[in-house]
Structure formats: C-alpha cells, structure tokens
Task: inverse folding
C-alpha cells in the first residue's frame, strides 16, 4: 500500500498534536499539514494534496460543516473523515449528506481511527458504531 497522506484540521493544538502522535505511529500514514480552522485548511489545499482530511466540526472562522461543503465542491478527489465530540445523529447525517466519508468521535481508540483511515483510503465509508447503530 502506498503512503496515505493526511491533513489534520482542528482548532486545538493539543488535539492536533495528540492525533498527529497517534497517526505517526502507523508507518502507512503521513501527516503532511495541519490547520487551525477552515480558512487555513482551504489555503493549504491549494498546494497540498492529501488523500484524507481529518476534520473537526467546531472551529472558528470557517467551521467544519462549511469547510466540508467547500472541500466537496472544489476538491472532490479528497476524502474527509470528521473527528468530533458531537455524537448526535443529526450532526452525522448532515456531514454524510455533505460528503463526509467517515465520522468518528474524539474519544475513539487508535485502532478504530486506523481502521477508518484505511477504509476511507480504499474507497469505503466508516462511521463510528454509535452513529451507524
């Protein structure tokens, strides 16, 4: 399998650092960039070509839902996995309708994050069991 390139987008430095640390433990994944908000992410996408974006919903300037919509309209080849604290089905359904290929809660285990990344990279979808049930 070729390297899976990721961008992390979350407004909390510690959260990004934690996810970067988890992701970097898997030799199949590379974090190529990070963004603190949707505006930064959209600027990064002008030059960076990730396979997958790990996207938070609650961010300043341009929130995750608005960013997801923009990604899907401009960068259809890029897949997005939502990483959020929102476990309400309504949030997940809105994200799925806007094109998210994955939806995970921030309290997920690293193994589930890896599974979601692999599944989405191979063209599938992955939704946390709390949502899919």
Result:
């Amino acid at each position: 399998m070729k390297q899976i390139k990721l961008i992390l987008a979350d407004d909390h430095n510690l959260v990004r650092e934690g996810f970067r640390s988890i992701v970097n433990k898997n030799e199949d994944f590379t974090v190529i960039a990070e963004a603190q908000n949707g505006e930064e992410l959209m600027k990064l996408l002008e030059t960076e070509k990730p396979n997958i974006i790990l996207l938070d919903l609650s961010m300043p300037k341009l929130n995750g839902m608005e960013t997801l919509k923009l990604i899907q309209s401009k960068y259809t080849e890029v897949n997005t996995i939502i990483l959020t604290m929102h476990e309400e089905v309504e949030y997940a359904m809105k994200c799925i309708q806007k094109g998210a290929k994955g939806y995970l809660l921030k309290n997920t285990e690293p193994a589930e994050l890896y599974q979601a990344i692999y599944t989405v990279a191979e063209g599938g979808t992955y939704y946390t069991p709390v949502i899919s049930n």
Observations:
- The chain is about 40% helix and 20% strand.
- The radius of gyration is 13 Å.
- The CA atoms of residues 52 and 79 lie 5 Å apart.
